[in-house]
Amino acid sequence: MEFAYLGPRGTFTEAALRRLPAAKGATTVPMASIVEVLEAVRRGEVDAGFVPIENSQEGTVTLTVDELVGGDPLVIAGEVVLPVTFVLASAKPAAEIATVASHPHAIAQTRGFLRRELPNAVVHQALSTAQAAQRVVDGEFDAAVCAPFTAEAVGLPVQAFDIGDNSGAETRFVHVVRPAAPPEPSGNDITSLVVYIDHDRVGALLAVLTELAIRGINLTRIESRPTGEGLGRYAFFLDCTGHLADARMGEALTGLRRICADVRYLGSYPRDHSDRPVPPPEGLSDGDFADAAAWLERLRSGGAA
């Protein structure tokens, strides 16, 4: 098993990948960008990819979502949610730091610290926090915003710990593969979808949400992304509670297929930290659907209600 991930080594992505059960014992291959990771999966150069998809403070990693929405089909087979902490790594004391480098999301999550403690420093973007740290070692910049383990790996002293503006920050990463059958239901799963609605139809989005709500399917995330076909043309990225194998999810998907211009299935997979099954709402278990289907069949066969 070979996993490509957003590198270089020493990134938060690598740390999260170590927590993914499917990656235990796998060969890991760092790549320079999210697009490279996903294209390597599409071409069959690796078995799977691992990339960030959202952050609790900065929101969506748009490059990942746009690739899943608009690129050649891939599906999500798992997720890892990683708590994120940042340090200021530098061989220089804070008073001598004139330049700081990091990934844009890390910069955004430490804005307050940088503005308060290094108001005169020029902030530069890097492809990753690990690359930023290496460029400090190489003498390009004075300091890096990175993970504690990254600073240790490259031998940089830490000038300040826990510099994030939000102490509860988390980043969600996804395990991506070529289209395949999903993992078995865990009882606490997410199904990810992209729905394309008819933009000339009044109430089109409400109709989508209704198909889910009447079956007790909760949305944990909804986001619009431009289709590139013109202003006002959007697809909606959805994360829904439930699994493709669930009767209620199956009915919801067939309902969406009927009313939407298109539906792209992006996978059903266990939620991270999903150690306890979540029962469906009353009347919406697979058994309830089977009983209702049997009742309907009796009616169609001339039997009594």
From TrEMBL:
Q: Which domain of life is it from?
A: Bacteria
Task: Show the InterPro entries listed in the entry.
Answer: ACT-like_dom_sf, ACT_dom, Chor_mutase/pphenate_deHydtase, Preph_deHydtase, Preph_deHydtase_CS
- Reported EC number(s) for this entry are 4.2.1.51
Q: In which pathway does it act?
A: Amino-acid biosynthesis; L-phenylalanine biosynthesis; phenylpyruvate from prephenate: step 1/1
Return the PROSITE patterns for the record: ACT, PREPHENATE_DEHYDR_2, PREPHENATE_DEHYDR_3
Report the top EC class in one word.
lyase
Name of the protein described by the UniProt record? Prephenate dehydratase
What's the encoding gene here?
pheA
